[in-house]
Design goal:
Blueprint lengths: L7 H33 L1 H4 L6 H33 L1
Helix pairs in contact: 1-3
């Protein structure tokens, strides 16, 4: 049986950073898609009294901020734990 790898915390840290960057990329792609859809179909967005970006981007921004806040706490905890080892 092979010995367990000792660098798994660093791999976990890298995977977590990749996940956070992936989440930001998804958010930016979704914003770009919404803007392109608005440019292609402005009449669909004219039905609302609020600007189009409020209805489209506010929930997504709240989700991104929550992911980044939790992600920051987990990242901070991992970095602190790795320094103590």
């Amino acid at each position: 049986m092979a010995a367990p790898r000792k660098d798994w915390p660093r791999q976990l840290n890298r995977a977590f950073v990749a996940f956070v960057l992936w989440s930001v990329g998804i958010y930016l792609g979704d914003c770009l898609w919404s803007w392109m859809d608005y440019r292609a179909h402005p009449e669909e967005y004219a039905l609302h009294s609020a600007p189009w970006y409020i209805l489209e981007l506010a929930p997504r921004t709240a989700t991104l901020l929550a992911v980044l806040a939790v992600g920051g706490l987990v990242y901070w905890g991992l970095r602190r734990w790795l320094r103590r080892r």
